[in-house]
Amino acid sequence: MTESLLSVRNLTTEFHLPDGRIARALEDVSFDVLPGQTIGLVGESGCGKTTTLMSVMRLLPASGRITAGHALFKGRDLMQLSEQQMRSVRWREMAIVFQGAMNALNPVMKVGDQIREPIELHNLMDRDAAEKRVGELLEMVGIQRSRRDQYPHQYSGGMRQRAMIAMALACSPSLLFADEPTTALDVMIQAQVLDLLKEIQKHLGLAIVMVTHDLGVVAEVCDSVVVMYGGKVAEYASADAIYNEPQHPYTRRLLASFPDLIRPSDTLASIPGTPPRLTDLPTGCRFHPRCDVKVEACDKETPVLKMIEEQSAEGGAIHCAACHLLHGEEAKFQ
Ligand code: SF4
Fold first, then answer.
1. I want to staple 154 with a disulfide (CB 3.0 to 4.6 A). Which of 40, 84, 150, 314 is the partner?
2. Which residue has the higher pLDDT, 312 or 179?
3. CB of 232 closer than 6 A to ligand 1?
């Protein structure tokens, strides 16, 4: 069985708001990332996708606290590392492409200098070698070396996103987090950025954790999927199982509300209601106020993740979902 590169177990994160309230942003989130594979974290806004990335990278704002859980990366628990140890892991071993390339890039610094910065921060090579690497990285993401000395405003939206990807790859990490990497790009450029990520992944053997609300992106690039709702895992499975045998009512509604290019339909069924406020979560199943198949237990008892299919011998994702309508054993993560 393939060993996981990253094993997230029971990760629980809270935000302490200025008015004293506590937002329970994540609760008991578990999943595995295998080397060279792409896992998608999907769900509506505010379901905990970005907080999961920021918790694993230990980049939460001051109000955030990880109150429980582990994130084992290459056998080390990131939650137990000192800040200094964590700094040597970030960018060098795991890197992130942030949402909104224009805001993530420094507008008054040449793009090439920004790509060279993480290499210098980690003392990976001398200045000449670092400069050569900047040229290689620009080429790898399809930007001409001659544009190295330009500023972000001289780049198109797609080029800025490519530059962000080059920066994230500067120190040759084995894990890349991509937070909504195609949001705010037009459809053609989105497809190009996704193709680039797939190409780079194949070439470098990278593992990718992709945060997206776009199920089209998931279908295009992901091997496995974590569907999140109200800060918890609603369903976790291979991308194939999520598309062809979704078990959780929320996953089904999410799929029905998204245009299917393979089996187009005249109508799209939106999910009634809104996601829960994290400061005022519903009792029982967090989806119950919006669920059209709820039963008596749903507003009283919190459903546990139940195992639908065990992990395959190749180490693909298990299939589990948290719903009272499902029967079977509670899912156990190794
Ligand atoms: Fe719906 Fe109940 Fe299942 Fe939640 S536990 S998804 S409310 S049926």
1. 150
2. 179
3. no
Which of 250, 254, 291, when mutated, tests ligand 1's pocket best, judged by the most ligand atoms within 8 Å of its CB? Answer: 291
Express each pLDDT in 293-327 by its tens digit. 999 999 999 999 999 988 765 556 789 999 999 98
| CATH class of domain segment(s) 6-93+173-322 | alpha beta
Query: What is the predicted pLDDT for the residue at 266?
Result: 63
Q: What is the 3-state secondary structure (H, E, C) of the chain?
A: CCCCCEEEEEEEEEEECCCCCEEEEEEEEEEEECCCCEEEEECCCCCCHHHHHHHHCCCCCCCEEEEEEEEEECCEEHHHCCHHHHHHHECCCEEEECCCHHHHCCCCCCHHHHHHHHHHHCCCCCHHHHHHHHHHHHHHCCCCHHHCCCCHHHCCHHHHHHHHHHHHHCCCCCEEEEECCCCCCCHHHHHHHHHHHHHHHHHHCCEEEEEECCHHHHHHHCCEEEEEECCEEEEEEEHHHHHHCCCCHHHHHHHHCCCCCCCCCCCCCCCCCCCCCCCCCCCCCCCHHHCCCCCHHHHCCCCCEEEEECCCCCCCCCEEEECCCCCCCECCCC
Contact residues for 74 (Cβ-Cβ < 8 A; gap 6+): 5, 93, 174
Q: Is the CB of 291 under 6 A from ligand 1?
A: yes
- Ligand 1 close to Cβ of residue 273 (< 6 A): no
Q: Among the atoms of ligand 1, which is closest to the Cα of residue 326?
A: 3
For a mutational test of ligand 1's pocket, the pick from 250, 295, 320, i.e. the residue with the most ligand atoms closer than 8 A to its C-beta, is 295
Question: In the chain, what are the domain boundaries?
Answer: 6-93+173-322
Residue 271 C-alpha to ligand 1 middle, in angstroms?
Answer: 14
| Residue owning tokens 């967090």 | 286
Ligand 1 close to Cβ of residue 9 (< 6 A): no
Task: Calculate mean pLDDT across residues 153-175.
Answer: 92
Which atom of ligand 1 lies at the shortest distance from residue 291's CA? 1
